[in-house]
Specification:
With about 190 residues, this protein is α/β, with parallel strands linked by helices. It has a single domain, classed as Rossmann fold, CATH 3.40.50.170. About 35% of the residues lie in helices and about 20% in strands. It has six helices and seven strands. Strands 3-2-1-4-5-6-7 form a seven-stranded mixed sheet, with helices on one face. Helix 4 links the parallel strand 4 and strand 5. Helix 1 runs parallel beside helix 6 and helix 5 crosses helix 6.
């Protein structure tokens, strides 16, 4: 069985979608959740699912101890699911080509430092984009610039607010992210057509 490590900062809706997906087909399991906020909802998910978790701060995320703990899980993939910090180069080097991220826009548009959640959706609406979507990509040393694995799109409606656009983006995230993980693990049960 494949082992996944998830980095998350918020409520954990993508984490929940990934856990639930792999409960159904049992080819992977979440072995560790790494979080930078002690009051984040994703930690409730970790406790309810009896998944070990690690709370990091700006200092501990740069220490080799976190890499040792991650390596002990023997992860097939490290999945960034709403993690708001830049991943240190030391972690990227320790897990080459094994770290992926989901971004709530069509990169290269509306990416980079500070572009997350409602900030992204505001930018999309203010730029009068006709469409938005998600980008799942490999992680490298530069924010939101790794090789794109998949993009899925949705229309931006004339009366959209950041909240209404976010709701459609979440549907895309929760559907595609687990399936892309499955695809990358080399054991897809379905094809992904976009």
């Amino acid at each position: 069985m494949h082992s996944l490590i998830i980095f998350a900062s918020g409520t954990g809706t993508n984490t929940r979608a990934i856990i639930d997906y792999f409960k159904r087909n049992a080819i992977a399991k979440v072995a560790l959740i790494v979080c930078n906020k002690p009051d984040a909802g994703v930690l409730d998910i970790a406790m309810n699912e009896e998944i070990p978790f690690l709370i990091v701060d700006k200092k501990t995320i740069h220490e080799t101890l976190i890499i040792d703990q991650m390596e002990s899980c023997k992860p097939s993939l490290v999945v960034l699911a709403g993690f708001l910090w830049k991943i240190p180069d030391s972690i990227i080097k320790a897990f080459p080509n094994k770290i992926i991220n989901i971004h709530p826009a069509l990169l290269p548009l509306h990416g980079g430092k500070g572009m997350y959640g409602h900030h992204v959706h505001n930018a999309v609406i203010n730029a009068k984009q006709q469409e938005s979507g998600i980008t799942i990509h490999h992680v490298n040393e530069v924010y939101d610039s790794g090789d794109i694995i998949l993009q899925a799109r949705c229309k931006v409606l004339e009366n959209d607010t950041p909240a209404s656009l976010a709701e459609r983006i979440h549907h895309l995230e929760h559907f595609y992210f687990p399936r892309v993980i499955e695809f990358l693990l080399g054991t897809p049960t379905v094809s992904i057509d976009v």
